[in-house]
## 1
Amino acid sequence: MRHLLNPLDFTVEEIDELLEVAGDIEKNPSKYAHVCDGKKLATCFYEPSTRTRLSFEAAMLNLGGSVLGFSSADSSSAAKGESIADTIRVISCYADICAMRHPKEGSALVASMNSGIPVINAGDGGHQHPTQTLTDLLTIHSLKGRLDGLTVGLCGDLKFGRTVHSLINALVRYPNIKFVLISPPELCVPEYIREDVLKANNVEFKELGNLDEALPELDILYMTRVQKERFFNEEDYIRLKDCYILTPKKMKLAKPDMYVLHPLPRVNEISVEVDKDPRAAYFRQAQYGVYVRMALIMKLLEVKAPC
C-alpha cells in the first residue's frame, strides 16, 4: 500500500507515467468511466476548499466510484476532540482511499501511519500540496510540451505558499530548470527551500522584488495569492496583499508563448482583464486537476488503465 504525502514520493519515471495516463484520460474519458466501479473515496477536509475537494470528488465519480466525507472540521468528530489517528482508522473501515486536507503540517503523515487505506495529502498547512503539484506539472507539460529547459517565475507569497514549495521540489528533478522568485522580502521563500532544495541541487535561481523586471525572460509565470489565513496579524496582511498584481499592461512585457498559472482561488493578484489573454491558463489548469487526480486514484488503488 502506498500513500502520496509529498511530490518526492514518486520517482520522475512514475510521475511521467502518471502524466501519460492523465493525458490519455483527457483524450478518452469514456474509456475510464467504470475502472473504479464499487470503490469509495473519502474526502476528509478539515479546512475550506473548492477546487481540490470537488476535483477529487469529480475524479472518483468520473472513474465510476463513489464519494463520502466531510468538508470542515466542525462537521466531523474533530469538533469533539477526536484525533487524526482515530479518524483515519474509522475511515479505513468505510472507504478504499482517502484524500485529506488539514491546517497542521505533518497531519497527512500521521494519518498514513495509522491508516488501512492509501492516504493522499490534499494540503497540510503551509507544507506540501502534492496533487496541486501534479496538476501544475500536467498543465506545464500540456502547454509547453516538456518539463525541462524552462524558466519558471514564482510570484507572490513564496513563504507560506505550499503549492510553491511543492512545485519547486518537483521541478528541480528535471534538467535545466531555472527559477525567478518574485516577492517582497517578508514573503520570500523559506531558508530550507533556498538552501536544501535549490542550492543543494545546483539549480539556477534569482530573487527579485519587481514583477516587471522578471516577465520578459519567463516561460511560465506561477502567480499566488497573499494568504490572509497564514498571517499572524491583519496589519501585515493588509500592507502586503496588493504588492504584485498582474495586468494586461504587464502581460505586454512577456513572451508570446509565456503561460500564466495560478492554483486558485484568485483574489485580486490577477486582473480579470487578463482572463481574455490566451496565455492565461489557470482555468484550464483546474480542469487538468481532475485528469491527474483520476490517474493518481487509479495508481494508488492499483487499477490498471484499460487497453
Note: The chain has a mean pLDDT of 91.
## 2
Amino acid sequence: MNLQRSQFLSINELQEQYLNKPVKNGVKTNDKGLTFEEIWKEKTGQLEEGLRFSKHAANRLADRSITLSDNQLDRLTQGAKRAGEKGIKESLVMVDQLAFIVNVPNHTVITAMEQTETNENIFTNIDGAVII
C-alpha cells in the first residue's frame, strides 16, 4: 500500500505548531515573542506611559474647541499616574481650568470639560481627584 502525505497536518504537528509556543515570564507568546496582553495594548492603543482618549472625550474636546498644549497633556498624564499610585480607579484630574475624568486602570480619558461648564462644580462616580 502506497500512502502519500496529505496536505493536512498530523495531530502531533498541529500540537507542536499551536501549543508549544515560547514562554515569557510564565505566559505563552506568539511567534514574535509577544504576550496576548502586549498584543492587546498595541492594537487598542493603550500604552503604559501615555493616555488615550475615548471617542466621547475626543468629541467633547472637539465640540468645546479645547486644545491641549504638550505641557498640559504631560501634566494630565502625570496626574493620572499619581492617581494610580494612590489606588484611585476613576479620577478627576484638574489641569489649569480644564477638568478630565480618567479611568486610571485603562489609561483612558473618559470625558473633558472646562471648569466653567460644570454644573455647581459637582463630579460624580469618581473615587479621587488630582489637581495639577
Note: The CA atoms of residues 54 and 110 lie 6 Å apart.
## 3
Amino acid sequence: MAKDVDLSSKEWRDLIFEGRNKEYGAYELRQKSAGRHNKSMIIVVIGLALIMGLVLLFQEVQRIIAEADIKDEASQELVTIDTSAAEEEEPEEENTKVEMEQPEALPEEILNTVKVTELAIVDDSQVTAEDEIKSQDELAETQTAFGQTNFDQGTDDRTVVREHKNEVIVEEKKPEKEEVFRSVEQMPQYPGGDAELMKYLSSHIQYPAMAIENNVQGRVIVQFVVTKTGAIGEVKVVRSVDRDLDKEAIRVVKSLPKFIPGKMNGQAVNVWYTLPVAFKLQGAN
C-alpha cells in the first residue's frame, strides 16, 4: 500500500501537514517541488536538444566543407593543361647572331679625285680608257676633287678629309719609374733598431722540413727595397744557400712591418736594404 503513495501529491502533503503550521518552510518546499521538477526536466530536455542540434550542425558543416574541397580538387584537375606537348612544339631559340656587314674601313678617309687630262695630239693607239676626256659640264656637276689620277675608293666629302688632317694624336706618357738609391744620407731603420729586427726574424722563421732532413743550414743574403712610405717593396736573393731556405727568407722579409724610410736631402726616398738571414740547426757546430 505504501508503494502506491505519491509523496508529491497534494493529498499526501495535506495529510502530513494537517494541524501544523503550514507557513513553515517545509510545506512551501513540498508545495513547489512538483513545479521545480517539471522545470528541471524541461531545462534538461532543452539542453540535450541544443547539444544534439549543435553536434548535428557541426557534422553538417564538416560535410559541406569536405564536399567543397572535393569540388575544388575536381575543378583544378579539369583546368590542368598538359603543357608538355606545347613545350615540345615550341621551336628552340637559335642562338644565332646577326652579323652586320661592316663597310671596309680605310686607314683614313681619302678624297676621291677625277683625273684632269691635258689635251695633246697623239696617235689613237696610245689613247687609254683612263685618258677619257670629261666635258666641262660633267666637271661642273661633280663634287669630286680634281687630280692627276682617278680614285673612287674614298669619299667625296672634303670636310671629312680636313677633319682627319686636323686630328692630333696624343700619346700617353708612361709614368717614369722611381729611382731606388743604394746609399743615402739617412738609411732606413727598423723600429727598435737591429736588435729588434733580428728578434723578429728569429721568432718568425719556420725552418723548412726538407732542409732539416737534409741537414741544410747557412746564411741567405737578401736585398729588398724600403719604399718612401717604409713598406717592403721588391725582394731578391743575392746569395743563395738552398731553394727552400731562399723561399723562407723571402717570405719572412715580405712579412716585415714598416721601416722608418730613408731620406735624401730631407725627403723620403726608395732605398735598397741588405739583410742576412741566418739558418742554423740546433745542436749543429
Note: The longest strand covers residues 270-279.
## 4
Amino acid sequence: MKKVLLALVGILLFALLAGAILYVALFMEDEPAMPVDASSESSASASQAEPQLEVYAHAETPADVLEALDYEISANRDTVGWLIVPGTEINNSVLQSHDNTA
C-alpha cells in the first residue's frame, strides 16, 4: 500500500512540475530590453519612453503608398486610407472603426 501511495505522490509531483514548466514556457514572454540613450538619461523625460509606432514603411512615392496601404489593409480591416503631411513626420495609415461613421 505504501508503494502505491508513494507512486501516486511521485506522479502528482511530476505532473505539477511539468505543468509549471509548460506554463512558464507558454505564457511568460521575455520583454525586449529598451535601448538606453546616454544623452537622454540626464533629462527629466528619460523616465517617459517615446511611443514606438508599428509602421510598415515610410511611403515616399505613390507606389510606396499603395504597397504600404495593401499591407496595412491585410493587417487591419479598419484601414481606410493613408495620411502624409509634408514637413512633418506624419506618414501612416488611417483607421476607421465600424462605430465611427463621421
Note: Strands lie at 79-84, 91-95.
